[in-house]
């Protein structure tokens, strides 16, 4: 009996210990009757490319809303995935239970829809709220995507691509403020090989700058676009990423730097002499889209988040310093935070008169490797020789050694493309320079240098044999005439 009592005591102790351990890992809540109960964590899962500054801000504000509290949402698990394949794997796996997809990757959304990995929004109340707060389009571009009249995804914010200028730098060198991409390729902005007027990033190290290069290629066409990019590269210093490129224009190391609008706003805070410019004629808008995932387990919770991100309060989060994106819901500027961001509001208002290019994501994706590595191999790898070639061309034009017609011919040859842009997959995959592209660039640059060097050589002072003979004959005739006069 005593032994049985000991067993019972031990069993009760273990049971109590287990219960205390179990309940300590649950969230304590108080029900309506004042008694204590326990609830399993309710977590919303979102796949995204947004940075942690942005996701943390949205999570903090959303979890404090009455909707999130009433639904018992305890956390948001943001699954960071920077590639389309990463999104695909997370969305197609039911065990991952991804509720929402959210990010500045419109091309991803098109492909995910084709793979049936996105779920249309069908809640009529939510649809009405979205339509009340998000416009159907902005600057001629659609903000919502439908499939058979069902809303599949919509934009929550947008950014644009352009360049940030340092007015002090431009004034120092007497440069005008450029208003188009093409102007950046002008010989006006060439200083010398030691001082660069423009800052650009090596495309394998910057998706932002890659998108800018793709924009130029789509805006001006493949051949003309590459000619422009080549000359821009000749006017530029090349930097290892978007952050260092922005830092160069803030410090005044360069006068113009390729940036997104958000990096432009950051630069303007860091240096009041800087200004973000949206290029006239050809600019691109990038929407931050959001959609339900096909394996959404918490639809009601996900719909609450969708409602929050389009509300004026949710939209105002985009205006937070360090996030600096354009909201799509203008009433966001009426919030307490929104009223402090006149810089974003003024640029937004001015952008309405800008022509924005319809960016072809399929074309950009199909030519991505060629764009990234042809730029890298011909402009970055051969940058010293490119700048030397461009410098000689510009100096000879400035001192009138060559005329503008010949200069235009040289410009065409400088930006000329090889017969095809195919390269070894091995080289592209590992990021090695493509021998054919690098050699092609090296040969065309050196050919121009050699040609201009010969043209610039001083003329020989010695006369040719033919001229010498002619002079001797002339002298002989003159002497004969003099002799006849003497007689």
Characteristic key phrases:
two-stranded antiparallel sheet, single chain, 16 strands, D-Maltodextrin-Binding Protein, domain 2, 487 residues, alpha+beta, 12-stranded mixed beta sheet, 21 helices
Q: Indicate the overall shape.
A: elongated
CATH topology of the domain at 43-158 and 287-351: D-Maltodextrin-Binding Protein, domain 2
**How far apart are the first and last residues' alpha carbons, in Å?**
166 Å
> Multimeric state of these chains?
single chain
Report the sheet-strand fraction.
15-25%
Helicity range: 40-55%
- Largest beta-sheet characterization: 12 strands, mixed
Q: What is the average of the pLDDT values? A: 87
Give the helix tally.
21
Which parts are unreliable, with pLDDT below 50 for 5 consecutive residues or more? 12-38, 423-431, 461-479
Q: What is the CATH architecture annotation of the domain at 43-158 and 287-351?
A: 3-Layer(aba) Sandwich
Radius of gyration equals: 33 Å
The total of beta strands comes to: 16
**Which CATH first-tier class of the domain at 43-158 and 287-351 would you pick?**
Alpha Beta
Walk me through what this model shows:
The chain is α+β, with helices and mostly antiparallel strands and 487 residues long. Among the domains are: 43-158 and 287-351, D-Maltodextrin-Binding Protein, domain 2 (3-Layer(aba) Sandwich); 367-457, no CATH class. The protein is 51% helix and 16% strand. Strands 3, 4, 5, 6, 9, 10, 11, 12, 13, 14, 15 and 16 form a 12-stranded mixed beta sheet that branches. Helix 9 (222-234) packs across helix 17 (383-398) and helix 10 runs parallel beside helix 11. The longest helix has 23 residues, at 2-24. The N and C termini lie far apart (166 Å). The model is unreliable at 12-38, 423-431 and 461-479 (pLDDT under 50).
């Amino acid at each position: 009996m005593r032994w049985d009592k000991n067993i019972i005591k031990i069993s009760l102790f273990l049971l109590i210990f287990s219960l205390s351990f179990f309940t300590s890992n649950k969230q304590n809540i108080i029900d309506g009757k004042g008694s204590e109960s326990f609830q399993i964590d309710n977590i919303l899962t979102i796949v995204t490319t947004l940075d942690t500054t942005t996701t943390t801000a949205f999570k903090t504000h959303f979890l404090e809303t009455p909707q999130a509290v009433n639904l018992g949402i305890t956390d948001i698990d943001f699954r960071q995935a920077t590639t389309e394949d990463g999104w695909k794997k997370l969305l197609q796996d039911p065990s991952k239970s991804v509720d929402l997809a959210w990010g500045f990757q419109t091309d991803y959304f098109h492909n995910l829809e084709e793979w049936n990995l996105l779920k249309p929004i069908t809640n009529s109340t939510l649809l009405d709220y979205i339509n009340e707060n998000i416009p159907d389009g902005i600057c001629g571009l659609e903000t919502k995507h439908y499939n058979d009249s069902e809303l599949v995804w919509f934009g929550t914010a947008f950014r644009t691509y352009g360049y940030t200028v340092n007015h002090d730098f431009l004034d120092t060198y007497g440069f005008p403020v450029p208003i188009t991409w093409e102007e950046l390729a002008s010989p006006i902005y060439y200083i010398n090989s030691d001082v660069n007027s423009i800052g650009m990033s090596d495309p394998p190290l910057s998706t932002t700058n890659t998108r800018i290069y793709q924009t130029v290629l789509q805006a001006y066409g493949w051949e003309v676009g590459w000619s422009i990019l080549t000359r821009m590269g000749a006017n530029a210093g090349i930097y290892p990423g978007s952050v260092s490129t922005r830092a160069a224009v803030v410090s005044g190391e360069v006068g113009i730097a390729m940036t997104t609008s958000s990096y432009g706003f950051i630069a303007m805070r860091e240096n009041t002499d800087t200004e973000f410019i949206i290029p006239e004629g050809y600019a691109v808008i990038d929407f931050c889209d959001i959609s339900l995932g096909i394996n959404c387990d918490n639809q009601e919770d996900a719909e609450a988040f969708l409602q929050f991100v389009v509300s004026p309060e949710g939209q105002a989060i985009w205006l937070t310093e360090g996030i600096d994106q354009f909201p799509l819901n203008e009433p966001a500027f009426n919030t307490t935070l929104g009223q402090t961001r006149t810089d974003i509001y003024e640029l937004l208002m001015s952008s309405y008169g800008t022509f924005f290019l319809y960016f072809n994501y399929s074309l950009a994706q199909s030519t991505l490797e060629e764009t990234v590595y042809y730029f890298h191999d011909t402009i970055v790898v051969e940058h010293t020789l490119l700048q030397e070639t461009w410098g000689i061309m510009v100096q000879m034009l400035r001192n009138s050694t060559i005329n503008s017609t010949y200069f235009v011919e040289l410009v065409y040859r400088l930006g000329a493309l090889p017969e095809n842009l195919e390269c070894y997959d091995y080289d592209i995959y590992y990021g090695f320079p493509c021998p054919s592209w690098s050699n092609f660039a090296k040969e065309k640059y050196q050919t121009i240098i050699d040609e201009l060097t010969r043209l610039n050589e001083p003329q020989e002072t010695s006369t040719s044999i033919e001229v010498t003979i002619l002079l001797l004959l002339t002298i002989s005739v003159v002497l004969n005439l003099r002799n006849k006069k003497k007689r």
